[in-house]
Amino acid sequence: MTTITTRTVEYPADGLTMIGYLALPAGVDRRPAVLLGPEGMGLSDVERLRADVLAELGYVALAFDLHGGRYLGDPEEMLARCMPLLADPDRMRGIGHAALDVLRTEPRTDLDRIAAIGYGTGGAVGLELGRDGVSLRAIGTVNATTTGRPGEAARIHCPVWAGVGSEDPIMPPAQRNAFTAEMQAAGVDWRLTVYGGALHAFHHPPVDHPTVPGVGYHPQHAQRAWRDVVDLLAECLPVTEELGT
User: Fold this and answer.
1) How far apart are CA 17 and CA 29, in angstroms?
2) 63 has pLDDT over 70
3) How far apart are CA 161 and CA 180, in angstroms?
4) Which secondary structure element, helix H or strand E, spans residue 52, and what is its range?
5) Counting Cβ atoms within 10 Å, is residue 36 exposed (0-12), middle (13-18) or buried (19+)?
6) Angle made by CA atoms 23, 28, 34, in degrees to the nearest 5
7) What is the Cα–Cα distance from 172 to 167, expressed in whole angstroms?
Protein backbone atom coordinates (compact mmCIF):
# COMPACT_ATOMS: atom_id res chain seq x y z
CA MET A 1 0.00 0.00 0.00
CA THR A 2 1.22 3.48 -0.87
CA THR A 3 2.43 5.52 2.07
CA ILE A 4 0.35 8.64 2.61
CA THR A 5 0.58 11.56 5.03
CA THR A 6 -2.42 13.06 6.82
CA ARG A 7 -3.07 16.02 9.07
CA THR A 8 -5.88 18.25 10.28
CA VAL A 9 -6.09 21.85 9.08
CA GLU A 10 -7.89 24.74 10.75
CA TYR A 11 -9.32 27.64 8.78
CA PRO A 12 -12.13 30.22 9.17
CA ALA A 13 -15.44 29.94 7.33
CA ASP A 14 -19.08 30.84 7.96
CA GLY A 15 -18.14 32.50 11.24
CA LEU A 16 -16.63 29.26 12.55
CA THR A 17 -13.22 27.65 12.90
CA MET A 18 -13.39 24.73 10.51
CA ILE A 19 -11.27 21.62 11.03
CA GLY A 20 -10.60 19.84 7.75
CA TYR A 21 -8.66 16.68 7.01
CA LEU A 22 -5.85 16.71 4.47
CA ALA A 23 -4.42 13.53 2.95
CA LEU A 24 -1.28 13.68 0.83
CA PRO A 25 0.07 11.01 -1.52
CA ALA A 26 3.62 9.72 -1.37
CA GLY A 27 6.33 11.83 -2.98
CA VAL A 28 7.06 15.54 -3.11
CA ASP A 29 5.77 16.54 -6.54
CA ARG A 30 2.59 18.44 -7.33
CA ARG A 31 -0.49 16.30 -7.74
CA PRO A 32 -4.07 16.73 -8.92
CA ALA A 33 -6.31 17.56 -5.99
CA VAL A 34 -9.80 16.77 -4.79
CA LEU A 35 -12.02 18.85 -2.54
CA LEU A 36 -14.22 16.35 -0.68
CA GLY A 37 -17.48 17.47 0.93
CA PRO A 38 -19.41 15.54 3.62
CA GLU A 39 -23.09 14.84 4.19
CA GLY A 40 -25.11 17.30 6.25
CA MET A 41 -24.11 15.63 9.50
CA GLY A 42 -20.58 16.89 8.92
CA LEU A 43 -17.06 15.59 8.58
CA SER A 44 -16.59 12.09 9.97
CA ASP A 45 -14.32 9.09 9.63
CA VAL A 46 -16.27 8.11 6.51
CA GLU A 47 -14.93 11.13 4.62
CA ARG A 48 -11.50 10.83 6.21
CA LEU A 49 -11.23 7.29 4.91
CA ARG A 50 -12.30 8.42 1.44
CA ALA A 51 -9.64 11.11 1.52
CA ASP A 52 -7.07 8.46 2.48
CA VAL A 53 -8.12 6.28 -0.45
CA LEU A 54 -7.88 9.22 -2.84
CA ALA A 55 -4.38 9.97 -1.56
CA GLU A 56 -3.43 6.34 -2.12
CA LEU A 57 -4.62 6.78 -5.70
CA GLY A 58 -2.28 9.75 -6.07
CA TYR A 59 -4.48 12.75 -5.29
CA VAL A 60 -4.09 15.51 -2.76
CA ALA A 61 -7.42 15.27 -0.92
CA LEU A 62 -9.01 17.74 1.49
CA ALA A 63 -12.16 16.59 3.30
CA PHE A 64 -13.69 19.88 4.36
CA ASP A 65 -15.71 20.78 7.43
CA LEU A 66 -19.26 22.14 7.56
CA HIS A 67 -19.90 22.78 11.25
CA GLY A 68 -16.80 24.12 12.97
CA GLY A 69 -15.37 20.75 13.97
CA ARG A 70 -18.71 19.31 15.07
CA TYR A 71 -20.54 16.23 13.84
CA LEU A 72 -24.30 16.80 14.12
CA GLY A 73 -25.77 13.44 15.05
CA ASP A 74 -29.05 14.98 16.20
CA PRO A 75 -31.30 15.21 13.09
CA GLU A 76 -33.11 18.30 14.37
CA GLU A 77 -29.85 20.12 15.03
CA MET A 78 -28.49 19.07 11.64
CA LEU A 79 -31.58 20.29 9.79
CA ALA A 80 -31.63 23.55 11.75
CA ARG A 81 -28.15 24.32 10.45
CA CYS A 82 -28.26 22.74 6.99
CA MET A 83 -31.62 23.91 5.71
CA PRO A 84 -30.80 27.63 5.97
CA LEU A 85 -27.36 26.89 4.54
CA LEU A 86 -28.79 25.05 1.53
CA ALA A 87 -31.12 28.00 0.93
CA ASP A 88 -28.21 30.46 0.83
CA PRO A 89 -25.85 29.97 -2.14
CA ASP A 90 -23.52 32.69 -0.94
CA ARG A 91 -22.97 30.98 2.40
CA MET A 92 -22.31 27.67 0.67
CA ARG A 93 -19.86 29.37 -1.67
CA GLY A 94 -18.10 30.97 1.28
CA ILE A 95 -17.61 27.57 2.92
CA GLY A 96 -16.41 26.11 -0.36
CA HIS A 97 -14.01 28.93 -1.18
CA ALA A 98 -12.47 28.82 2.29
CA ALA A 99 -11.74 25.11 1.93
CA LEU A 100 -10.54 25.58 -1.64
CA ASP A 101 -8.09 28.25 -0.45
CA VAL A 102 -6.62 25.71 1.98
CA LEU A 103 -6.28 23.15 -0.79
CA ARG A 104 -4.68 25.68 -3.12
CA THR A 105 -2.22 26.74 -0.43
CA GLU A 106 -0.94 23.17 -0.05
CA PRO A 107 2.40 23.00 -1.96
CA ARG A 108 1.60 19.52 -3.29
CA THR A 109 -1.54 20.74 -5.10
CA ASP A 110 -1.44 21.22 -8.85
CA LEU A 111 -3.45 24.44 -9.06
CA ASP A 112 -4.64 23.71 -12.59
CA ARG A 113 -6.03 20.28 -11.71
CA ILE A 114 -8.67 20.38 -8.97
CA ALA A 115 -12.02 18.59 -8.76
CA ALA A 116 -14.86 18.84 -6.25
CA ILE A 117 -16.60 15.70 -4.98
CA GLY A 118 -19.36 15.91 -2.41
CA TYR A 119 -22.19 14.12 -0.64
CA GLY A 120 -25.47 15.77 0.35
CA THR A 121 -24.77 19.26 1.67
CA GLY A 122 -21.09 18.89 0.75
CA GLY A 123 -22.10 18.09 -2.81
CA ALA A 124 -24.30 21.19 -2.94
CA VAL A 125 -21.28 23.25 -1.88
CA GLY A 126 -19.27 21.80 -4.77
CA LEU A 127 -22.01 22.65 -7.24
CA GLU A 128 -22.15 26.21 -5.94
CA LEU A 129 -18.43 26.58 -6.51
CA GLY A 130 -19.06 25.61 -10.12
CA ARG A 131 -21.96 28.05 -10.41
CA ASP A 132 -19.64 30.71 -9.01
CA GLY A 133 -17.29 30.17 -11.94
CA VAL A 134 -14.48 28.39 -10.08
CA SER A 135 -12.09 26.62 -12.44
CA LEU A 136 -12.57 22.92 -11.72
CA ARG A 137 -11.82 19.82 -13.77
CA ALA A 138 -14.92 17.95 -12.57
CA ILE A 139 -17.78 18.12 -10.09
CA GLY A 140 -19.21 14.91 -8.68
CA THR A 141 -22.12 14.67 -6.27
CA VAL A 142 -24.17 12.02 -4.51
CA ASN A 143 -27.57 12.95 -3.00
CA ALA A 144 -27.15 16.56 -4.14
CA THR A 145 -29.28 17.23 -7.20
CA THR A 146 -29.74 20.81 -5.99
CA THR A 147 -30.54 23.70 -8.30
CA GLY A 148 -29.05 27.17 -8.20
CA ARG A 149 -30.02 30.72 -9.02
CA PRO A 150 -31.31 31.26 -12.57
CA GLY A 151 -28.59 31.38 -15.20
CA GLU A 152 -25.63 30.75 -12.92
CA ALA A 153 -25.11 27.14 -14.02
CA ALA A 154 -23.74 28.59 -17.27
CA ARG A 155 -20.60 29.39 -15.27
CA ILE A 156 -19.88 25.67 -14.84
CA HIS A 157 -17.16 24.78 -17.33
CA CYS A 158 -16.41 21.18 -16.37
CA PRO A 159 -18.21 17.84 -16.48
CA VAL A 160 -20.80 17.29 -13.75
CA TRP A 161 -21.77 13.82 -12.55
CA ALA A 162 -24.59 13.28 -10.08
CA GLY A 163 -25.69 10.08 -8.38
CA VAL A 164 -29.00 9.63 -6.58
CA GLY A 165 -31.14 6.81 -5.22
CA SER A 166 -34.37 6.06 -7.08
CA GLU A 167 -36.30 5.97 -3.78
CA ASP A 168 -34.70 9.07 -2.25
CA PRO A 169 -37.58 11.17 -0.85
CA ILE A 170 -35.27 14.12 -0.19
CA MET A 171 -34.12 14.30 -3.81
CA PRO A 172 -37.28 12.98 -5.55
CA PRO A 173 -37.87 12.74 -9.31
CA ALA A 174 -39.17 16.32 -9.55
CA GLN A 175 -35.97 17.62 -7.98
CA ARG A 176 -33.82 15.42 -10.21
CA ASN A 177 -35.68 16.69 -13.26
CA ALA A 178 -35.20 20.32 -12.21
CA PHE A 179 -31.48 19.71 -11.76
CA THR A 180 -31.01 18.04 -15.13
CA ALA A 181 -33.08 20.76 -16.83
CA GLU A 182 -30.83 23.39 -15.27
CA MET A 183 -27.68 21.63 -16.41
CA GLN A 184 -29.03 21.04 -19.91
CA ALA A 185 -30.20 24.63 -20.38
CA ALA A 186 -26.76 25.85 -19.31
CA GLY A 187 -24.96 23.62 -21.79
CA VAL A 188 -23.13 21.71 -19.06
CA ASP A 189 -21.57 18.32 -19.80
CA TRP A 190 -23.71 16.44 -17.29
CA ARG A 191 -24.54 12.89 -16.30
CA LEU A 192 -27.06 11.49 -13.85
CA THR A 193 -26.89 7.98 -12.41
CA VAL A 194 -30.00 6.69 -10.65
CA TYR A 195 -29.33 3.74 -8.35
CA GLY A 196 -32.40 1.50 -8.30
CA GLY A 197 -34.03 0.91 -4.93
CA ALA A 198 -31.63 3.20 -3.03
CA LEU A 199 -32.68 5.77 -0.43
CA HIS A 200 -31.02 9.03 0.57
CA ALA A 201 -27.43 8.70 1.83
CA PHE A 202 -27.33 5.15 0.48
CA HIS A 203 -23.54 5.43 0.27
CA HIS A 204 -23.07 6.09 4.01
CA PRO A 205 -22.54 3.12 6.36
CA PRO A 206 -25.10 2.80 9.18
CA VAL A 207 -24.71 5.24 12.07
CA ASP A 208 -25.40 4.77 15.77
CA HIS A 209 -27.76 7.73 16.10
CA PRO A 210 -31.19 8.71 14.73
CA THR A 211 -31.43 9.92 11.13
CA VAL A 212 -33.96 11.86 9.12
CA PRO A 213 -36.65 9.75 7.39
CA GLY A 214 -35.73 8.31 4.02
CA VAL A 215 -32.10 7.51 4.80
CA GLY A 216 -30.77 4.00 4.29
CA TYR A 217 -27.51 2.24 3.48
CA HIS A 218 -27.27 0.17 0.30
CA PRO A 219 -23.89 -1.63 0.33
CA GLN A 220 -23.89 -2.67 -3.32
CA HIS A 221 -24.84 0.74 -4.66
CA ALA A 222 -22.42 2.39 -2.22
CA GLN A 223 -19.57 0.48 -3.87
CA ARG A 224 -20.90 1.30 -7.33
CA ALA A 225 -21.19 5.00 -6.53
CA TRP A 226 -17.62 5.09 -5.27
CA ARG A 227 -16.41 3.40 -8.45
CA ASP A 228 -18.33 6.01 -10.44
CA VAL A 229 -16.58 8.78 -8.50
CA VAL A 230 -13.17 7.24 -9.11
CA ASP A 231 -14.00 6.79 -12.80
CA LEU A 232 -14.99 10.46 -13.06
CA LEU A 233 -11.65 11.48 -11.57
CA ALA A 234 -9.74 9.09 -13.82
CA GLU A 235 -11.42 10.63 -16.85
CA CYS A 236 -11.23 14.31 -15.92
CA LEU A 237 -8.34 14.41 -13.45
CA PRO A 238 -5.97 11.56 -14.31
CA VAL A 239 -2.89 10.87 -12.27
CA THR A 240 -0.48 10.57 -15.19
CA GLU A 241 2.86 10.36 -13.42
CA GLU A 242 4.38 7.57 -11.40
CA LEU A 243 4.12 8.04 -7.65
CA GLY A 244 7.27 9.11 -5.90
CA THR A 245 9.02 6.80 -3.49
Assistant:
1) 29
2) yes
3) 10
4) helix 45-56
5) buried
6) 35
7) 7
Report the distance separating Cα 78 and Cα 73, nearest Å: 7
Which of 204, 123, 199 lies closest to 161 in space, CA to CA?
123
Main-chain phi, psi angles of 236, to 5 degrees: -100, -20
Rounded Cα gap, residues 102 and 149, in angstroms: 26
- pLDDT reported for residue 245: 34
Report the DSSP pairing between strands 160-165 and 138-142: parallel
Contacting residues for 126 by C-beta, under 8 A, at least 6 apart = 35, 37, 96, 116, 117, 118, 139, 140, 141, 144
What pLDDT is attached to residue 240?
Answer: 78
What confidence tens digit (pLDDT) does each residue in 223-245 have? 999 999 999 999 999 997 544 43
Residues 142-154: tens digit of each pLDDT: 999 999 999 999 9
Prediction pTM value = 0.96
Q: What is the pLDDT of residues 188-219, one digit of tens each?
A: 999 999 999 999 999 999 999 999 999 999 99
Distance CA 141, CA 3 (A): 27
Could you say which DSSP state residue 155 is in?
Answer: G
DSSP, collapsed to helix, strand or coil, labels residue 239 as coil
What is the b/e burial string over 167-186, where b = at least 16 CB atoms within 10 angstroms of the residue's CB? bbebbeeebbeebbebbeeb
Q: Which of 217, 231, 61, 97 is nearest to 161 (CA)?
A: 231
